[in-house]
Amino acid sequence: MTLFTGRNLVCVRGERRVFAGLDFAVDAGAALVLAGANGSGKSSLLRLMAGLLRPASGTLAWDGAATAADPDAHRARLHYVGHLDAMKPVLTVAENLRFWAGLRPGRRTGNPGDAVGPALETFGIAHLADVPGRFLSAGQKRRLTLARIVTAPAPLWLLDEPTTALDEAATASLEAAIAGHRAGGGMVVVATHTRMAVDGARVLDLSHFAVRSQGAGELGS
Amino acid sequence: MSRFLHIARRDVRLAFRQGIGGLMAVMFFVLAVVLFPFGVGPEVNMLARISAGVIWVAALLASMLSLEQLFQADFEDGSLELLALTPMPLEVVVLAKVTAHWLTTGLPLIAAAPLLAVLLHMNTEGFTVLIVALALGTPSLSLIGAVGAALILGSRRGGVLLSLLILPLFIPVLIFGVGAVDAALAGFTVRPQLFVLGAFFLAALSLCPWAAAAALRQALE
Prior knowledge:
The structure holds two protein chains of two kinds. By secondary structure, chain A is an alpha/beta fold. Chain A is about 30% helix and about 25% strand. In chain A, helix 3 packs parallel to helix 5 and helix 4 packs across helix 5. The longest helix of chain A is centred in the last third of the chain and has 16 residues. The C terminus of chain A is likely disordered. Chain B is mainly α. Chain B has one domain. The mean pLDDT of chain B is about 90. Classes of the chains: A alpha/beta, B mainly alpha.
């Protein structure tokens, strides 16, 4: 079943069309890899999917219903990993994670902190739980960011260059986490330049949707 | 509601972890007021006459000091993006952060005000009204300031811009705040001024979170 779809999406950044006429569909348990050169709009598409950007035209739909109609419900079912790690240097690793976990739906009954330990374990930073964030290396910060998405369940993962600064072991952990997530019916959309082993992923090459002539790309006055 | 407290608690904790960061506003407040006897001379009658105005102006400037950082740090490290993606209205996030701002600056200012009133030889009849007026006025300052803090995101030299944007908007609070204390010192009724301050607070409470959230959405695009 096709759960998450985009139809005829147009993205405008700074009065320049980044891509136009883009369609995508992600089924339950499927993965979509975004490919394309720098500036082809991979990050913009992920931000569109998350609802941080609004498409200039076109619609995003979840199970047939437009996501714009109920943004709160849409945000409740997604995890977004951007370029920044959203980590507070003065809070410990566990405190950082517990904060983000506490803002998610589900787990209202249980203590959101319960999932923190296993999530840190997944990415091999459980021994750093009580270390303030400012002492982490770039790769460890990245692992913490990824631990955030496994702490609270959400069906849709939107990952923007998730392997930046990760070593091989952590990349393998991420691939395993993605596989586990998909086995449970979750969906993953990932933009990456490095080789990631994502089984059976569909590849969406954004350069096909680039607006070639700059003249056509300008907004009408 | 629990998420509202979750965010407010995290912001208060961040303020305390940053060491003197939380105390900076109140220290500035005390120092700014202490400068006046040096500037205008230690004549008791003169100081008593200007005391209400001096304390209010210093409180205004002090609460503005920390406003610049209200959203800036979260904006720079990507936390704001994630807060905007949590399944609750961005207005609630704004309100939680404003509450934390008031708890870490407004409340210490109110606590320090009587001490400074003694220093400036204010007549004791004005003390209670001064505290009540500050308690009604400082939340409005935090709320109005949040709109300015959201608007300056991403701009350089934001602090100066912030003061240009919001200091004019603080003037009504200043007029009625000082008016209430002066009325009490002169033996008149203070209810009208306090009611107006309360009305300002309710108006700011109902309008500012929406305005600030709209500005934040703009900044995140």
